[in-house]
Amino acid sequence: MANIEQRVLENFREELGEVADLALIRAVRVRQGDPAQVILEQAQRLAVDLLIFGSHSAGAGVDVPIGRTAVRLLQLSPVPVYMVPLAQHLGRRKV
Predict the structure, then answer these.
(1) CATH 3.40.50.620 describes domain 32-95
(2) pTM given for the model
(3) How far apart are CA 64 and CA 56, in angstroms?
(4) With 80 as the cut, is the pLDDT of residue 37 above it?
(5) Is the N or the C terminus of the chain less surrounded, counting Cβ atoms within 10 Å?
(6) Nearest alpha carbon to residue 84 among 68, 62, 65
(7) 31-52 b/e with 16+ CB inside 10 Å = b?
(8) Where are the domains of the chain?
(9) Concatenated DSSP letters for 20-62?
(10) How many CB atoms lie within 10 A of CB 24?
(11) What does the CA dihedral 28, 11, 83, 65 come to, rounded to 10 degrees?
(12) What stretch of H or E contains 8?
C-alpha cells in the first residue's frame, strides 16, 4: 500500500504544483474494501467532524449527477457531508 500512497502523493504534486498547496495535505491513506464502508470506518476511527468528497461516479457519464458511493455516504454518515461536483460537470445542463 505504501507504493500506492506514494504514487498518489506524486499525482498531487503534479496537479497542485505549488508547495503551499501541498502543505494542506496531512496524510494519504489507501485502503481496500467497499468504498463507502471504508470511508465511514476511517471517518469514525479518525473522529472527523465533516466528510468532503466528490459527487460524481467514476464510471458514469455527465448525465449522472451523483455516484453510488456518494449516495451511500449521504445516507449512512453520522457527520455532515459536503459534496464537491466534478469541475467538468459544472455548467453542463441539458436544455
Answers:
(1) yes
(2) 0.69
(3) 7
(4) yes
(5) C
(6) 65
(7) eeeebbeebbeebeeeeeeebe
(8) 1-30, 32-95
(9) HHHTT--------S-HHHHHHHHHHHHT-S-EEEE-S-TTS-T
(10) 8
(11) -140
(12) helix 2-16
Which three cell numbers mark 1? Answer: 500500500
Residue 92 pLDDT > 60: no
Say if CB 76 and CB 36 are below 8 A apart: yes
Q: What local confidence, expressed as pLDDT, does residue 95 receive? A: 44
Q: Extract the C-alpha cell encoding 21.
A: 498547496
Write out the three cell numbers for 14: 503534479
SS3 call for 83: strand
Angle between helices 68-76 and 35-46 (to 10 degrees): 40
